UniProtKB/TrEMBL annotation:
Biased composition (Polar residues): 131-141
InterPro entries from the UniProt entry: Ras-like_GEF, Ras-like_Gua-exchang_fac_N, Ras_G-nucl-exch_fac_CS, Ras_GEF_dom_sf, RASGEF_cat_dom, RASGEF_cat_dom_sf
The species this protein was found in: Paramoeba aestuarina
Region forming the signal peptide: none
GO molecular function: guanyl-nucleotide exchange factor activity
Biased composition (Low complexity): 1-16, 59-70
Domain N-terminal Ras-GEF: 144-266
Keyword Cell wall biogenesis/degradation (UniProt): no
Protein name (record): Ras-GEF domain-containing protein
GO BP terms in the entry: Ras protein signal transduction
GO cellular component: plasma membrane
Matching PANTHER family: CELL DIVISION CONTROL PROTEIN 25, GUANINE NUCLEOTIDE EXCHANGE FACTOR
Domain Ras-GEF stretches: 290-520
Keywords: Guanine-nucleotide releasing factor
C-alpha cells in the first residue's frame, strides 16, 4: 500500500485540458466508462472519471473515477472503473465555467430573466389586451375592496348625503333601482333624519349646513327625475309635507327653494288632454302602401310607446308581478309582434308568385327605411316577419327577387344578427347618434341574467353590486328615451293597426296558405283542396237543411 502511494505521488500530473492522444480503442473504452449522475437541476449530464461527481444524500458521498496513469493493482485492465475507497484520488479543481454555472443556480430567477426572450406584443395579443397596458384592479360582488357591495340602507343614505363628496354614479344607480330594496316613505324618512342630524353627530355649524344642503339637493334630484314615486305614495307625500313645515320654521333659504320646486312639480302633474288624432288611417294595402311613409309613421308611433315605458318596469321584468307591473313593456312588445305578423300574413296570402315577389321586395325596402331612421326595433320586426318559416320555405318566391334586394336583405341580417350576443348590432348602435329606438329584447335579456345570477341581499345586507349592474342597463334605455324624433307623419299608424287583427291560430293559417300557394307536392295540395271543398259543401248542406226544417 505504501509503495503504491509513493508511486502515485511521484507520477507527474498532467495539466487540465491536456493529455495523451487517444486512440480509437481508448475512446471506445472511455465511452463505455461514461457514468450518468443527476445534476442539481434534475437533468442527467454525462461525467467522466477525470471529473468525479459526488452525490449528497444522507451526508455520505460515493464517487467514481476513471483511473489514469498507473494501473490500479486491483484492476485487471487499464481504463477500468474503480471505487474511491479502493484507490485514493484527488479531484481536479472545478473549471471557471463550472463555478459560473453553480453561482447562477444559486441566484433566484427573476421575472425579467425569464421573460427577456418573450415578445410583449405577442403576449398582449394572446391575453386580448393592448401592449404596455397597465392592469387595473377589479372589484367583485361582496368583496371588502368595494365598501358599498353589501351595506345597510342607512349606510347608502350616508354615502348619498356625504357633505364632503358627491358621487354622481352612486346617485344615478341608487334612484334607478331603489324601489327594489326600499320604499319612498322609508327613504324619505332617512333623508329627513340626516337633515335633522338625529344621530347627534359632532358637527360644526359649517358641516351641518353643508349636510343640510346636500340632503336638499338629493331630494330635489329625486323630485325632478322620478316625482311620480313621491306623489303616488300617500305616506311619502305626507312625510314630505311635514318636512316642509319644519323647514319653514328654520327659515332656511335652501328649504324654501325645495318647497317652490314641489309646488311646480305638483302643478305639472295635472292630467294632460291627449291631442285628438285628426290624421287619416295609414294606407297598408299591399299593392299601394308607400314604404317611406309607413316607416315614418311606424317610427313615430313606436317611439311614443318606447319613451313612455317607466324605468322601474324594467326592474320588475324578471319578477312574478311583471304581468301587472310591466304593462307598458308588454304594449311595446305587442307592437313588434303585430308588425311581424302583418309582414308574414301579407306574404303568404298572395296566390300569384309575381305578387309575392313584389311584396317581398317592398318589405325589404321598408326595412331599409326603418334602418335609416335608426328604428332598430321596427327593422328587426320586419326582418322577423320575412324570416318566418311559413314564408321562408318559399324558395321559388325568394329566388325571383332582384339581386340588389337580396344583397340588402343579407346585409341587414348580418348587421342585426343575434350571433355573439348581438355584437355586430351593439357596435353599430354605439356609432349612431340619437334619436334611436333600440331593440328592447337585449335589455330585457340582460336584466333577467343579472337578476337570476345575483341575490338581492347577502347576510341581511343590500347587495348594491347587483343594483349597480342593473342600473347600467336601465341607464342605457333611459339615454335613448330622452332624445325625441322630430317626424311629422301624414297618416295615423295607430288607426291602421287597430283595423287589422290577427287570431290566436294565425301560425297554422300561415302554414296552410304557404303550402297551398307554393306546395312541395302539387298533387297533395290539390287533394287537400278537394277534401276541404267537400267538408265545406257538407257543412253548407247541413246548415241549409236545418234552416228549411
Amino acid at each position: 500500500q505504501q509503495q503504491y502511494q509513493q508511486q502515485y505521488q511521484q507520477q507527474p500530473q498532467q495539466p487540465q485540458g491536456e493529455g495523451r492522444k487517444r486512440s480509437g480503442s481508448d475512446a471506445k473504452k472511455e465511452k463505455k466508462a461514461r457514468v450518468v449522475t443527476p445534476d442539481e437541476d434534475g437533468k442527467n449530464t454525462p461525467r467522466f472519471g477525470d471529473q468525479s461527481g459526488s452525490g449528497s444524500s444522507g451526508g455520505k458521498s460515493t464517487s467514481f473515477s476513471l483511473s489514469k496513469g498507473k494501473q490500479n493493482p486491483r484492476s485487471p485492465s487499464k481504463g477500468h472503473l474503480t471505487h474511491s475507497k479502493d484507490v485514493p484520488s484527488q479531484p481536479l479543481p472545478p473549471s471557471a465555467k463550472e463555478k459560473e454555472s453553480k453561482e447562477q443556480k444559486k441566484k433566484p430567477k427573476s421575472t425579467g430573466s425569464i421573460l427577456k426572450k418573450v415578445k410583449h406584443d405577442s403576449v398582449a395579443k394572446d391575453l386580448s389586451i393592448e401592449p404596455r397596458q397597465q392592469a387595473t384592479e377589479t372589484k367583485t360582488a361582496g368583496s371588502a375592496e368595494d365598501p358599498l357591495s353589501n351595506v345597510t340602507l342607512e349606510r347608502l343614505v350616508e354615502a348619498l348625503t356625504n357633505e364632503k363628496t358627491l358621487d354622481l354614479q352612486l346617485r344615478l344607480a341608487f334612484f334607478l333601482t331603489y324601489k327594489r330594496f326600499t320604499t319612498p316613505f322609508q327613504l324619505l324618512s332617512l333623508l329627513i333624519a340626516r337633515y335633522k342630524n338625529e344621530a347627534s353627530e359632532q358637527l360644526s355649524n359649517e358641516q351641518l349646513k353643508a349636510r343640510k344642503l346636500r340632503v336638499v339637493s338629493i331630494i330635489k334630484y329625486w323630485m325632478e327625475e322620478c316625482n311620480d314615486d313621491i306623489f303616488d305614495s300617500p305616506d311619502a307625500l305626507q312625510c314630505l309635507t311635514n318636512f316642509f313645515s319644519y323647514v319653514e320654521g328654520e327659515a332656511e333659504p335652501t328649504g324654501k327653494l325645495l318647497i317652490k320646486l314641489f309646488e311646480k312639480e305638483k302643478s305639472q302633474r295635472q292630467p294632460k288632454q291627449a291631442k285628438p288624432d285628426d290624421c287619416p288611417p295609414l294606407n297598408l294595402a299591399w299593392d299601394s302602401f308607400d314604404e317611406e311613409e309607413v316607416s315614418i309613421a311606424l317610427t313615430q308611433y313606436e317611439y311614443n310607446l318606447f319613451s313612455a315605458i317607466p324605468l322601474d318596469q324594467l326592474l320588475y321584468w324578471n319578477q312574478k308581478e311583471r304581468n301587472t307591473h310591466c304593462t307598458a313593456i308588454y304594449k311595446f312588445i305587442d307592437l313588434s309582434n303585430w308588425v311581424s305578423s302583418w309582414v308574414t300574413s301579407e306574404l303568404v296570402s298572395k296566390f300569384k308568385r309575381r305578387d309575392r315577389v313584389r311584396l317581398f321586395e317592398k318589405f325589404i325596402s321598408l326595412a331599409e327605411h326603418l334602418l335609416d331612421l335608426q328604428n332598430f326595433s321596427g327593422c328587426m320586426a320586419v326582418l322577423a316577419g320575412i324570416g318566418n318559416s311559413s314564408f321562408w320555405r318559399m324558395k321559388l318566391t325568394r329566388s325571383e327577387a332582384g339581386e340588389g334586394y337580396l344583397e340588402s336583405y343579407e346585409k341587414m341580417k348580418t348587421r342585426l344578427t343575434s350571433k355573439s350576443n348581438y355584437s355586430a348590432y351593439r357596435s353599430y348602435l354605439k356609432g349612431c347618434t340619437p334619436p334611436s329606438i333600440p331593440y328592447l329584447g337585449i335589455y330585457l335579456k340582460e336584466i333577467t341574467f343579472i337578476d337570476d345570477g345575483n341575490s338581492d341581499s347577502q347576510y341581511g345586507l343590500i347587495n348594491f353590486y347587483k343594483w349597480k349592474l342593473m342600473a347600467s342597463v336601465v341607464e342605457e334605455v333611459k339615454f335613448y328615451q330622452t332624445t325625441k324624433y322630430l317626424l311629422t307623419p301624414r297618416a295615423s299608424f295607430g288607426k291602421a293597426k287597430d283595423s287589422i287583427v290577427f287570431g290566436e291560430n294565425c301560425q297554422d293559417e300561415w302554414q296552410f296558405y304557404s303550402h297551398l300557394v307554393e306546395p312541395k307536392d302539387a298533387e297533395a295540395a290539390i287533394e287537400q283542396l278537394y277534401h276541404l271543398y267537400q267538408d265545406n259543401k257538407a257543412q253548407l248542406e247541413s246548415y241549409m237543411g236545418g234552416a228549411a226544417g
